[in-house]
Amino acid sequence: MTIRFRDAGSGNLPRVLMTVLAGATGVESLPEEAEGNDWFAWTGRLPAAVQSLRLTPLAREQQPHVTDVTIRRRGRILLAARALTRDPATAVRALYWRSLGLKVRGRGLLMAALQHHSETGYRAWIARFDTLTEANRRSIRSEIAGWQAQGRLPLISVLMPVHDPAPAVLEAALRSVRAQLYPQWELCIADDASTNPVIPRLLARHAAADPRIRVMRRSQNGHISRASNDALALAQGSHVAFLDHDDVLAETALYHVAAAIRSDPDRVLIYSDEDKIDARGRRFEPHFKSSFDRELLYGQNYINHLCVLATARVRELGGLRPGFEGSQDHDLLLRATAGVPTSRIHHIPRVLYHWRAAGGSGTFSDRALAQSETARLQALSEIVAASGGHAVRGPLGFNRFVRSLPEPAPRVSVIIPTRDRAELLEIVLRGLFAATDYPDIEVVVVDNDSVEPQTLALFDAYARDPRLRVVAVPGPFNFSDLSNRGAAAASGPVLLFLNNDVEVIESGWLRELVSITLDPEIGAVGAKLLYPDGTVQHGGIVLGIGGVAGHSHLGLPDTDRGYFARMVLAQEVSAVTGACLAMRAAVFAEVGGFDAASLAVAFNDVDLCLRARAAGYRIVWTPYARLVHHESKSRGAEDTLEKRARFQSEIRVMQDRWGAQLRADPYYNPNLSRTAAHFRL
């Protein structure tokens, strides 16, 4: 079956959630893909007993304009041909199994081949989603003309410090600015005493050809910060965009920036996705970024290019700081965003900047590598000093923000729901009491009808230990209710919800979690959880995966840095797993605890985190607290009709309650696949 619809003006990002109601199995979302020109389609096998198709608006402020809905039945030959074009290897295996008469296995492989089409290579993605047609250009120019008729064309000042680049790459950079579809720009160039006489002549030629280009020449080389500040002194626009002398802007870059400024002129920071280009101009290694992530910015300059800042803000800060060469951009961004609400920072999920990764470009950063790490640590140290934290060198040379614990450290109440499985519970208790470097731990074991002699003997063994209490909560398993009962019995200002199948493998994990949890801006903190084989079980939760949510970087080796080092850096996420979730007791009470009525088992942790975010708190995941999670060993799989019905009911609750958020996770780029949270196209 293929279902297609057109969402006019969506720009290949749908504004509707497409779901089907399928009898007793409940609501199932259909992960459609963009076909271009505002068309979206889903192809696959619908669940049995489909009763209705529903298109639900994702956000109140962005109403969809759905037209031309079509539904077509697809024959087996057409589906096989489609699968062959999408995933030939899987499709061939499917056809082989079906030729042997093994229809179930063949059908499963065939549907897998159809589903894998949403993940594609970058060259194919560029051809499909990032190649302008003349019709696109006419449409953009028409929109800009409408802005001009309204008298609202913001001036954007592009700042370019120049020092002895290869003339060819400087020529390409200049031409990329002059080729912008958006006309209201100025290019402010500071030539930092280039020694190659070709450079000033090339700059003068372009300045003579276009009055929007303004050039000043420094009498002596002062390096990138001073040169950038001289370019800043020439700027007359409300916002400044930073362009290296060897990089290239996408043709639509300033158009999208202008649209963001027009929608909110008070925005302090606007940034986009980026990629790299080689010596032949071929694009590779795209970086599809998240919305503003303050925690990730502490660790690395993930914002990088294209970076646009309010001119007044940059001047208020004194511009770029000499002495921070190699990390001058990171330093500026840390200072520019300090204390600025997220609402005044905007991410454009489009590749608008091409960063040259080729010899001979003569970048300033290449010359400053020796001191960039020191400068980056100094920049972060100054930002976090007021909070009592400090900056240290993290993995791969990135920053690590270490928050201090107060003296005395607050009591942590560890809440562990359990039903028997004493061999697992004994491991987690031993890890907490003997292998964890934290001075004040209280463990509240919430016992849900344990009957095995080994479990009762374990409780007896700890009966005289004042650090552990057993709270009996009989009845059907309800993780949310058990956790809420444990929280009610806890005495500590910090709550740690911990599964009974988690194993401690390093001593400082709890100090890390608590130090972040005590930050008044933060609502919940999660750890890096590993499977027993050393692969990632939990790297934070990404919304929209599988229709509701899924774990980031699932199955990745623990030693792998992840997507642009995401698995070695603390970062904000939309949610973290309740298998190991730290939260201040006051925040837990403020947001109402876990939803025991509607989310007894699944997604209660996601719901809790989303309510904390709605209350204004940030959710943080840290790789500096690692544990092993023997996932669901005590609870078992969803393998009965009753469990499946309950699970489908919980899916419906999440989709009804958080539908818009599930389809627009701010920490997961909309250009990435929702098949799994592996950060693939």
Task: Describe this protein with a few key phrases.
Spore Coat Polysaccharide Biosynthesis Protein SpsA, Chain A, ten-stranded mixed beta sheet, nine-stranded mixed beta sheet, alpha/beta, globular, 3 domains, 681 residues, 30 strands, 34% helix
Any idea of the CATH topology of the largest domain?
Spore Coat Polysaccharide Biosynthesis Protein SpsA, Chain A
User: Can you tell me the overall shape?
Assistant: globular
Mean pLDDT comes to 88
Proportion of residues in β-strands: 15-25%
Number of helices: 21
> What is the total domain count?
3
Helix proportion: 25-40%
Give the low-confidence spans. Answer: 101-109, 111-118, 359-367
Distance between the termini: 24 Å
- Beta strand count: 30
Classified by CATH, the class of the largest domain is Alpha Beta
The major β-sheet equals: 10 strands, mixed
The CATH homologous superfamily of the largest domain is termed Spore Coat Polysaccharide Biosynthesis Protein SpsA, Chain A
Task: Name the CATH architecture of the largest domain.
Answer: Alpha-Beta Complex
- Radius of gyration (CA) equals 28 Å
Q: Tell me the structural class.
A: alpha/beta
